[in-house]
Amino acid sequence: MFRSGKARIAILAATAAGALALAGTAAPAYAGTGQGTTVTAGSGSHGGMSPNNSPVAPSVITQNEQAAFNYFVGKGLTAEQSAGIIGNLDQESGMDPTIWQYGGGPGRGIAQWSAGGRWDTDPGDNVAEFAAGGNVYDLTLQLNFIWFELTSFPGYGLGDLQAAGTIDDAVLAFQDKYEICGACNSTNRINFAHAAYDAYAG
Fold first, then answer.
1. Is 140 within the bounds of a domain?
2. Is residue 116 part of a domain?
3. Which positions make up the signal peptide (predicted)?
């Protein structure tokens, strides 16, 4: 089941009090099981299915979002810049590290890295190699890989992201340089980012 951007914001509003109670918690709530979940890439797929075909609870999604937000703030990004990343990841995967692209497409994980590319084959720049035998579906590993790519390859736009002074600018910087999406649906990404900022930046 896939929810629209408006429904996604309603979920965040309903769970914001619980999310704020988790402030400072960096550990992910869901690390995956090594199996992929099938969703539509870039759909803002909150409420998708977990590997055992049960609904992914909004509370788990919220905890994954907060863990990711805290992670990037901990790396020195501003709250606005971190929210910009979260808005993009929400649109790509609903912050579920086990997500697979719907219909057999190549997208995998929170950033929908492509199988046959940045997921498993690009020399020196792929999740599988970075994992070094670890669980590629682990949320913390995927966050670490995003940071590895941002800090290792200038083309992925860390400079543009760090120069972004607003949430909207941060969303667009990460969207254009890191996600390099086709039909990006920037409005959804921006809405998700503002909702994340409102929930976690306090």
1. yes
2. no
3. 1-31
* Phi, psi (degrees; rounded to nearest 5) at 17: -60, -45
Which residues lie closer than 8 Å to 123 by C-beta, 6 or more apart? Answer: none
Note the Cα 105 to chain centre separation in Å.
18
Residue 4 has pLDDT above 90, yes or no: no
**What's the rounded Cα separation, in Å, for the pair 87 and 90?**
5
Q: What's the pLDDT tens digit per position in 13-38?
A: 333 333 333 333 333 332 333 333 33
| Domain count along the chain | 1
Provide CB contacts within 8 A for 71, sequence distance 6+.
26, 140, 143, 147
The position carrying tokens 């992925």 is 156
In a domain, 186, yes or no: yes
As a residue count, the chain comes to: 202
Asked if the structure places residue 46 within a domain, the reply is no
Whether 70 and 76 have beta carbons less than 8 Å apart is answered as no
Residue 201: pLDDT band by 50, 70, 90 thresholds?
Answer: very high
Q: Read off the pLDDT of residues 143-166 as tens digits, 9 standing for 90 and up.
A: 999 999 999 999 999 999 999 999
pLDDT tens per residue across span 50-67: 344 445 566 677 899 999
Q: Domain residues for 66?
A: 58-96+136-201
The confidence score (pLDDT) of residue 29 equals 32
